[in-house]
Each structure stands twice: as structure tokens, then as C-alpha cells.
User: Which sequence fits this backbone?
């Protein structure tokens, strides 16, 4: 199941270090419609410095970096989320810790 997670900088660093994290809340889209997916992503972004899209079996369970499909960051406080691949996690950590 696809979920969207609002992550803190510390949770992001834990993922990069190979640890699993259990975010406070997972946001699930109302349907597979792009607008619903975007709404869930944007809601997750309101609950963390980074929004992550992840594929998990249990939306309330721990998440590892291997579960994460992409990372999304509002770089300029415009509400527009920039997309990052998981391979760019070090750069994302640097961006959010500035």
C-alpha cells in the first residue's frame, strides 16, 4: 500500500543510516486518482520537513529506506514540492538542516 509520511530531519538521517523509523502518522490517498495522491502527499508535507512516498504492508509499522519510493521537499516555502530519489537522501538531509 502506498502511504505518505511527514518526516523530521532526524528520521531522515535514521533512514540514511539504515535504521527503520515509525512516523507518527501515515497519510493514505482516498483513491488512486492523481489529485487524491497529491492531497495525501501535501498533507504529509505539512507534518514534517520532508514528505516521503513509501510502499508498506502496514501503514502504522516501521519504514526503512528500501520502502521509500521518493522524497519531497518544499525548498522555497511556496508549497511546491521538489522530487528527490532515495539515492539523493544525503543531499536532502543537507537541504533540510540548513
Assistant:
Amino acid at each position: 500500500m502506498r502511504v505518505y509520511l511527514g518526516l523530521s530531519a532526524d528520521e531522515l538521517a535514521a533512514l540514511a543510516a539504515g535504521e527503520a523509523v515509525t512516523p507518527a502518522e501515515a497519510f493514505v490517498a482516498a483513491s488512486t486518482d492523481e489529485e487524491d495522491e497529491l492531497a495525501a502527499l501535501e498533507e504529509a508535507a505539512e507534518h514534517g520537513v520532508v514528505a516521503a512516498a513509501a510502499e508498506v504492508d502496514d501503514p502504522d509499522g516501521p519504514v526503512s529506506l528500501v520502502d521509500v519510493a521518493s522524497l519531497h521537499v518544499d525548498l522555497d516555502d511556496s508549497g511546491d514540492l521538489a522530487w528527490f530519489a532515495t539515492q539523493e537522501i544525503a543531499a536532502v538531509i543537507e537541504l533540510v538542516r540548513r
Observations:
- The chain has one domain: 2-96.
- The helical segments are 9-16, 34-45, 89-96.
